[in-house]
Specification:
Elements: H1 5-9, E1 12-16, H2 23-36, E2 40-43, H3 48-55, E3 61-66, H4 75-87, E4 92-96, H5 99-103, H6 107-128, E5 134-139, H7 146-159, E6 163-166, H8 175-184, E7 190-194, H9 200-208, E8 213-216, H10 219-231
Parallel strand pairs: 1-2, 1-8, 2-3, 3-4, 4-5, 5-6, 6-7, 7-8
Helix pairs in contact: 2-3, 4-6, 6-7, 7-8
């Protein structure tokens, strides 16, 4: 592996986005994420408080996914949800860009929602003295054509968030989408590949395509496999 195990771990977010998951399932994933020193555990807002309790004192952040999956709910509701997640211990936030607005060519609406979200979170973090919160904009790459993907990159750049993230609508994320985002975003904005990353080979392919973060519900299996490889004598 070109990446050291510790570096690989800090590029991977474990995703647990099943609304049916109970507290025990969240706690189990938290414990394994702690042991593997992943970058973050991404959960729905209703699981943030439990995850924050379990991960307190570790180097794994809680990432709340707001407006999942298509950002169609009202902007005020999404911002209020984000603020509640911050209060409950989230250190990272993923905000779903309004796919319906993008498809309807209402780019101003998508831009204004993301900008308002980013501004609110930055101000709240600064006023609360809690340090910077990592912000990721989830782009519905599985539903947008290349023209809209490029416009989404511009919206993300204007909002000054930290990452633009693919969302493949259930299909494996295309390497071409990761490459497109990397090409059309400034260096100050990272790319997160999420969707269909099920193996170590998948993760490394996305990193080679330009992703700085990987999101996967198979993150624990990927890192366990990578750790096993690292223990095998060369």
């Amino acid at each position: 592996m070109a990446l050291r195990l510790e570096e690989l771990a800090k590029t991977i977010d474990c995703t647990l986005l099943d609304p049916r998951a109970g507290r025990q399932a969240v706690e189990d994933v938290c414990l394994r994420s702690r042991d593997l020193h992943l970058a973050s555990l991404c959960v729905l807002p209703q699981h943030v408080e439990c995850a924050a309790d379990c991960l307190r004192g570790s180097d794994v952040k809680v990432c709340a996914v707001v407006g999942y999956p298509e950002g169609a709910s009202a902007a005020k509701a999404k911002i209020a949800e984000a603020e509640r997640c911050l209060d409950e211990g989230a250190g990272e936030l993923e905000f779903a860009l309004n796919v319906r607005a993008m498809l309807a060519c209402d780019f101003a609406l998508a831009r204004d929602e993301l900008t308002a979200f980013a501004r609110t979170v930055r101000m709240r973090s600064a006023n609360g003295g809690r340090g910077a919160v990592v912000l990721k904009a989830v782009i519905g790459t599985g539903r947008l054509d290349d023209k809209r993907k490029k416009l989404a990159c511009k919206i993300v750049e204007l909002a000054e968030v930290d990452f633009a993230q693919t969302h493949s609508n259930g299909a494996p994320v295309a390497i071409q989408d990761v490459e497109l985002l990397r090409d059309y975003l400034p260096e100050s904005v990272g790319v997160k590949a999420s969707g269909g990353v099920e193996s170590l080979d998948d993760a490394l392919a996305m990193i080679n395509a330009g992703a700085g973060r990987i999101g996967s519900p198979f993150a624990l299996e990927i890192m366990s496999y990578a750790a096993g490889l690292a223990r095998v004598p060369s």
